[in-house]
Design a protein that fits this description.
Elements (H helix, E strand, L loop, with lengths): L6 E9 L3 E5 L5 E5 L12 E8 L5 E4 L9 E10 L3 E5 L6 E4 L12 E9 L4 E5 L18 E9 L3 E6 L3 E6 L12 E9 L5 E4 L8 H14 L3 E2 L7 H8 L3 H13 L3 E4 L2 E4 L1
Helix pairs in contact: 1-3
């Protein structure tokens, strides 16, 4: 079966005036237009291509790389809005439609939004949706506390930043635990900090407990080397100063310099820390 909205590895069946026809093991075939045909090929070769609908709603394949594939989330830019909905640039000739009914807020041309790409079963078209929560499931969780996870930042709220966890679950990074610049669409690594009784998930951008100390200590050590062996931060430095310089909390900073001191890599003085 040739899967719409995804990559397919297909065999070259025949050469025609409009392009190559590629097929799968089940006897299905699809056109690779001339503009995407490789310079060198032979009948029987296999190509990995992306399948979507062309401007006449016919399945075709392309060698172009889309920014998002079916059943995935991605940050995309709106290039046009008309009476049907918003059209987003996803790296292909034909733009990805987000119908008005799938917009959490009315989309505007030139703005960027995180969307979910899926196959609409009624129209059999690939469309996008900005109503992300309906594609996320916190009923049956596949993560545990302390797990390292992949995150996509979706929006900022009064509490912090909403994130998508492993393309499956919804989570939250609290504002007071963010020590670096964040923006909608960022792809980050994070850690499961806490799972509440209602399955809401709190995320930390740093490893939990002492697991975070070693990488943070390495970060401080590298910055010391880069700064000529001196860093003007110490126990009395404010959390804001530490966050601005190192993108970590004061608690982690103190644990990390304690580790470096015990390893005899630094000395700690009233005006800052020095490489040994």
């Amino acid at each position: 079966m040739i899967e719409l909205g995804n990559y397919n590895t297909l065999e070259i069946l025949r050469d025609t005036s409009v392009g190559l026809f590629l097929g799968d093991e089940e006897g299905n075939d699809v056109l690779l237009p001339n503009k995407y045909v490789p310079e060198i090929y032979e009948i029987g070769d296999k190509l990995t291509v992306f399948c979507y609908l062309d401007f006449e709603e016919r399945p075709v394949v392309t060698s172009l790389t889309p920014y998002v594939i079916r059943n995935k989330f991605q940050l995309l830019k709106v290039v046009e809005v008309n009476n049907v909905g918003a059209f987003l640039d996803w790296g292909l000739e034909k733009h990805l439609l987000v119908p008005f009914r799938e917009q959490r807020i009315r989309m505007q041309e030139g703005q960027w939004y995180v969307v979910y790409c899926y196959l609409d079963e009624k129209s059999f078209r690939l469309v996008g949706s900005n109503k992300l929560d309906k594609f996320l499931d916190n009923e049956e969780l596949t993560v545990e506390v302390n797990d390292e996870v992949d995150l996509i930042v979706t929006r900022q709220s009064d509490l912090g930043w909403d994130v998508i966890i492993n393309d499956k679950h919804k989570g939250l990074v609290y504002t007071n635990e963010v020590f670096k610049r964040m923006a909608v669409g960022d792809n980050l690594k994070g850690f499961i900090k806490h799972i509440r009784p209602d399955n809401k998930i709190d995320i930390s951008l740093q490893a939990i407990g002492y697991e975070s100390v070693e990488p943070a200590a390495n970060t401080i050590y590298k910055i010391l080397q880069k700064e000529g062996g001196y860093l003007g931060l110490h126990d009395k430095s404010s959390p804001e100063e530490i966050s601005a310089k190192l993108q970590m909390s004061k608690k982690i900073f103190k644990k990390s310099i304690g580790t470096l001191y015990r390893d005899r890599k630094i000395t700690i003085k009233p005006d800052g820390i020095y490489l040994v």
